[in-house]
Amino acid sequence: MNFSFLFFSCLALPVASCTGENENKQLRSEEKNNTQLVVNSVPEKENFFSQEYLIGKFNQKTDSSFALIPLKYCSKEGMYLRKETIAAFVKMYDAAKKEGVNLKIISATRNFSEQKSIWEAKWNGSRLVNGKNLSQTIKDPVERAKIILRYSSMPGTSRHHWGTDMDLNSLENSYFNSAEGKKIYEWLKKNAAAFGFCQPYSMKNETRLNGYEEEKWHWSYIPLSSVILKEYLQKIKPENITGFAGAETAGKLNIIEHYVKGVNPECR
Asked: What global pTM score does this model have?
């Protein structure tokens, strides 16, 4: 599908921080301030994104390409996405709402430092994985990394670095198999592409042999993430994936080919 119209159209939405205040009060403040997010167009030249950006070494809170997600659309304060992604999500949110489907962003941009915190907590055992302290039960570093990589990215390799990807409603696949969760997932499968969104970690099959396990909650704004992925694959090598516990396994696991590139072909 050609998504270029989603970038070049003049989209805008009110800016509001996720402060946790009463939603009506927040919306009145938005209308009063009448501040707008102006959507950027697709980069028309190569080398638009720096190596540091691609591996998440930036601060989304101070980067002008990002904005706070309005509280109306997110589950907690302080989450950021690129402005283009927010604008497209708002259109999808509104369309879903009209059909009785409530979309809620529960996780958004995570920079290198934030992803490192998640990864190392699992690596060092302070955060259990499937009820186990991996630092005690899995001594081989490659095997330990493989277990973490079922659902968590190494710092420097996560699509959540880019400001194009978000997690919606629940972090459990089972949630989307029945009741409200099933309604949400069925709506997304049918309609998300019309707004530029795709599920990068679809069920593994002959077209997606490698990478993370299925994540029904993870959706990516493809008109931009496909551009970023292309540049990532051109610029980043396994030796650039460093600066965290277990980084020495990146090359052994062919992390870029098997995980960064290992997405649903429709999301490239």
From this structure: 0.84
